[in-house]
Each structure stands twice: as C-alpha cells, then as structure tokens.
Amino acid sequence: MNQVLAMRVYVRTVEAKSFSRAADQLELPRSTVSKLITDLEKHLGVNLIHRTTRSVNVTAEGWEYYRRAIKLVADIDEAEQAVRGKKDKPQGHLRIDVQVSFAHNLLIPALPEFNQEYPDITMALGISDRTINIVGEGVGCAIRAGSIQDQTLVARKITDLEYVTCVSADYFKSMGIPRTPREVADAHKKIIYFSSTTGRIVPLTLTGKVKRWKLQKASILLTMGMWLSI
Questions:
Q1: Tens digits of residue pLDDT in 59-73
Q2: Which residue, of 48, 84, 129, 192, has the greatest Cβ tally within 10 A?
Q3: pTM, entire model
C-alpha cells in the first residue's frame, strides 16, 4: 500500500463526503479509492469510515486521524512545491573547466546573459587546455574539444566547431600557394598544438573532396566535436 497516497485519498474522501466525488477530484477509479481506504483501515486496525449507500460517516477515530493526516498532507505538498520551485529556478554553486579558446570566444561573452537569467547560480570557472581529473579536482563539468580519452566519463556531444587554418599574404609570396591538402601537410610551415599531458605533437589532419583547390587568403576548414563531460 502506498501510505501517502492512501492518506491523501482519505483526506479528500472526508472532505468530499463521497467516494465518487473524491475519485473524480483525484482522477482515480472509485474502486481504487475504496480499496486504498480499506487497506489504510487494515493497516491502522480501526474503522475510519462507516459506509452507507448514500454517504460516508466518519468515526471518532476517523476524525482524529483526519486532523493529523491533513497536516501531514499539507507538509508533503509544501515540501514538494519547495523542491519544484528550486528546479524551476536553479540555484547553487557550479565549478566548470573549459578550454581557453572556447572560454574566450563563446563562454565568457555569454556570462552576463547567463547571470541575468540565473542570478542564484554562482560559478567558479577554470580555463585551461590541460587534461583534468574531474573527480579528484572537484570539478562539476568540463568542456573539451576532440575525442573522449577517458571512457569512464559521462560525456555528451554539444556541438561541432569549425576551425579555419589561416595564411598571410606575405607567406604566400615567399612559399607559394599550396594546391592540395597533402601539400599543406608535407611542404609548408605550420603552427600546431602539442598535448600538455603527453608532450606529444598533435598532428594537423587536412581533408578535401577535390584533388586540387584554389587558395587566395586561407580557406582550409576543419571540424572538431565539442564535448561536455560530467
């Protein structure tokens, strides 16, 4: 027996003075209302209601139980409403760690609007490209680009980011214009990343659907997945 539901049904039945009206108000079958009150009486070991064909008559024990039950039901409703209110209006402290480029270009510019919409949330923002220990460092969530290395993390892909590799006009004059992605990879100077965790260089991978292309000012498009880990 769901005792809280049975208590709620009993209170409504006493107030409605009818099983049928209580069932309609609670949107429950009349048989369910009757069974819940019967089960509640068995649980308590007393008769709460004298049933007649036209109405219900509350016993002395039933009135005593009603006076106490109505307070408990009100407390439960108040507790549920308080929790729902917090869910509707988030609050608390959030610690997140974000990659440098994502933080400066997207996250930090959006903070004033976020703070205006969620004034009860405080945030500690860590900005770095290193691999962090989410559990060990007490971080609530981390936003990182690329593939997920730690498969034990709960991660969700939030977007794809497009990157453009740029070249200056002076570089073209001295080094020439590359004609294929392979030529960029093999014969041209590049500024690329190395892993702060392993110290290894992260290779630049370029792909193209055509074998030859025209570059005037730099137009190599890269796509990278952005992940949220918690």
A1: 999 899 988 888 888
A2: 48
A3: 0.45
